[in-house]
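#data-curation
PF: Archiving a pair of folding outputs for the training set. Convention for this channel: one message per protein, sequence first, structure tokens after, nothing in between. First:
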Amino acid sequence: MFDVADMHGHHGDGRRVAAVQVIFPQSQIARGKASSAAETGSTDHVPSASSTAADSSTLADKAIAGLPPDLAEQANDSKRKAKSQDPGWKFGWWPDPSKKEFVQCIFCMKVVPSGIKRFKQHLAGRFGDTMKCARVPEVVSKDMQAYLKKNTRSALVLVDDESIEGEDDAAAAPVSKDMQAYLKKNTRSALVSQAAMSSFVVSAPPKPVTQKGSKSVAAMLCKSPEEVIAERHSNKASQSTLEHCTKKGKEVQQIVDDHVADFLYENNIPLNVVNSRSWEIMLESIGQYGPGYRGPSYHDIRVPWLERAVERTSLMTAKHEESWKEYGCSLMSDSWTDVRGRHLINFLANSPAGTHFLCSIDASSEIANANMLADLLENQIDKIGRENVVQLVTDNGANFKAAGRLLMERIPHLFWTPCAAHCLDLLLEDIGKIKYFNTCINQAKRVCRFLYKHGRLHNLMRQMIGGDLVRPGITRFATSFLTLASMLKHKNGLKSVFISNEWQQSKFSTSQEGIQAENIILSTEFWNSVEFCLRASQPILIALRIADGDETPAAPEIMAAMDKAKATIKEALKNKGKLLAEVISCFDKRWESQMEQKLYGAALFLNPGKFFDIREKDRRQAARLRSMFNDVMWKMISNEDEQTKISKQADDYERSEGECFSKAGAIRDRGKKSL
């Protein structure tokens, strides 16, 4: 196996040299050593170990004598050196005994980081990106090279760049003829076939910088791990990238995969950790660091790394607080019950900087009435700053509604808004309770339970439809409609299940449940009702994705999305008058009476991508949105001069007048902009 990496050293002609690791079976290495000894002959002078040691010691003493007195005293201090027979300690010492990864050179007085091995590479030269000592005697340099080669796990050979490119030049370092012949014959094919393995063992390090704080071009162009992962998630589509063009071999990938798997299994780490963004960022950052990264000690992860994490969290919190002061924020509460039966309430703040978790409170011992909830929410508002909180978002429970009204009385500029996603989920529940739709949903659930209850039928279904259905969930009412959509998509496959020979020959085909499931799937009436059910629910599901998504702010979009959903439902069910009336009644009950919030209207007014289309089609609706904007402005801004100034700017925006809004570019790009 060959392992290639650029190394910054100097050959006789000053050319850059590359290091090639050649890993042979022990038998081949032994033969290479034998042939090398035979070719060298007995007439060559080989200095004894004792004479070499004497020369090195003499040179070390002379170098220490030439140091300043304070440094010479440190170099002779045995407490500043490891109690080891390693030859590197003849020529270096710890300038600070508490930082034992730094070793200072007696020849050039340079402090070398990363321990004694790196220091020996500094003396030897031509190892990785280590700068060779400018004043090291040649004898010491050769001794260090010989020691490093002797104690490495694989035979290390230095070869010119031109040899790597395919030319038949001799190797830079003396090796046996057998080894040279092997290299000349196999270098190109080995480099191509083992490129992945070589990059796995060692990667080409960057060239040493000449100025403090300077960066290589590669370092400046390289994206941070966070940017790489964010781009990977945002661009789901398949696209040819440099990463794809330089994929490692399957064997190397499997080695890494096995190590990752062993780590997770041996330490009993929950496997869903691989779904977290921080896991991906960690792997990407280790890959960008390259070979040689050493993980933390128990003390590191327990004390200094934890302290740094706390500092980073504090800085992140400070950025959110700055955003709250500049733009304002929404305080959100989420109440839920855990598996231990505790009533927990989470508090979060949302702003253009993102969503920030504030705290979680165990309210199990309290009566969750309006006054108690209002006091809890007001306490969180005071922590953020009353002047910074624009909106309070809670679920649609009667106690939270009452708490919201109390807080709007206590804090005049505050808006209370029920959670849009929760409201739409309840709207879908109401639509699902309509008798016509309820019968259809129950029939679909009955079929799903039957197919998934029996392993043979489940396997047969998977073969016929090429996968699984979206099954009804417990908490989200939307999943019932998603199940219907999945069944309609696989309509032909489901029918194939119940007309197949396997079904006819199975005992399930004669059971009562089986007969019912077969009659449902082969019923034209069932599939017609599924279609009407989806016509009533799909527009609301689209709005639910907007309200429950994280990609774009929902406030400027949700009102327009719900207006569009209502119009679409009316068109889809226009031939089913009674059914349409029931759906619109549910729509008005949940949305018009609860979610027709002025804050949403103001956000839609300030969304040029939607507002100007509305203005062209429905002047009355545009005037209504402007009225909502005015009401919000007058509630939030108490200063009359500021009210007048904002109102004039809103007039210019609405009429496309003034210096900013009348420009051709501003009018042209309306559709590309939103809040």
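PF: Second:
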Amino acid sequence: MKRAALLIGLDNASQFPPLKAAVSGAKSVGEWLAAEGYQTTLLTDENGGAVAVHDVKAALKSIVEKGDTEKLVVYFAGHGLLNGLSELWLLSDAAHDIDQVIDVSRNVEAARTCGVKSVVIISDACRLLPGTVSQSRTSGAMIFPAMNDYSVDVEVDRFFATRPGMAALEISSGQGAGSSDRERYVGIFTEALRDIHIDPDATLIGPVTIEGKASVGVLSRKLKSLLPHVVDGRAQDKSLSLRQQPQLVLECGDDGYVARPTTSKGGIARKSASQLYRHTASLSLNRSILNDFSIPVPLRDEASFRDFRDRARPPFALLGKTVGATIIGKPVASAFSPDVEVGVVKSGRITQLRVRDDIVSIISVVARFEDGTGAVIGIVPKHHTTVMVEPFGISNVLFEFAAQDWDGKLGLVLDYGAMASEIATAANFGMFPESREDAQAFASSSAHFNNPTLTLYAVMGLVEVGLRSKISSLTDKMAWSKSSALFDLCLHLGSWSVDAGPFCPLLSQTWAFLENDMKNLPDNIVEAGRYRQASLWTTFTAEGMDLIERAREAGELQWQQS
């Protein structure tokens, strides 16, 4: 079995500002991995060239279809966006053709059936939010061939150059004035990833198997804590105002790696791993409840993390007393349900949506905010839904028992709010999940709670790291899901109830699975999904809400999955 790498470097993407280190970064990584024994394929826009989706698909197909690859690295350097939970890579003509975009998140799922045991995706690209309406409705292309090989448990590791919402930086390499402009710039992340394999600290090295032979490698799990500090330190060395912290989402075991350690003639001075680890603190959830599940947060992020978490947590004074919903953060212009009558009571930035208390299945409520954006709210029997809305979209949704069903559950209601806001914040910061262990730990710890929000967050974590098969054992314990189920759960379980709701995904993540797992969702609803804000929970742009209204007029909001 061999190792293969596909390197993509694009300095130019239509109307976007030109980059200076994407092509050189791809070439540099290609040379490094080739020296490591990888068979490499390089795609760049050097010398006025262009790279299109069909070029990338053809290159991957030629690698995967041979069936003799044990490790595949896909490296991209260029412009990127983060639309909801969708990581987007922009190819040469992306500004003029929305089909010239690669959706990393969807391709992670496609890679799971490619038959290659280890897939490593390395993205040296920004993860900024879309800046225009056309960018916000961008969905991405699939590049992995449909191999449908389920015989291999594929592990997909993701190395992102920066955290969600942040830029991936290029800096001057300090070379002389005689060098070309592009040669004098490097991507901080790419350069650091290469350098960390040169004369690495001994604590980073461990046994691995390469093409059937025992060897040693720089272990990915060791890099997870170290690499963010190395990259951020290099940014700070350039300017105190610069920040960049990579994010590693790992599914590999302890023997996961990208390359072996190498040596330099003079050696490289480097802080030890133990010195760098001390910069990480843990903000822990209620330990007595969640069995020591915790979220590591870099100290310099603590203030912004806590601020976001506090905003995402519904005020206890506003917890619902009846079956219905409360929307906090954006004034609601209008609301309706295709299922029941809805009463709307508005008070500034807080809106109460009232329905009858005796509903027996999940209902859909469409709420349009005064700025034209909006959302589809799910109301679960015997529960009140609280929706926390930020300017960028919905940050958190809490399903808690309606007051008439508290009966000694008040402490649990408070715990639900604390736990949900913590996970919502971690997910918005790109800190959850960062490994299969993270996802499984949270799913295991939250399994005994009979709460739809925690179930959805657990499902989100399992799906993100390729553990959809674990969802059924989680939901089997949820009493509320026996009589009816939320759309997202039904889709991932492949089991639909006539009482399932609401009529579209609640989580932005779920939209990536519609194409493969659903065939009869009405076109207007599918198209509305392309007009979403970059938020954890589905929040439609004004154009998306117009399409939902069109679906209402066409009688499509009460569709049923066959």
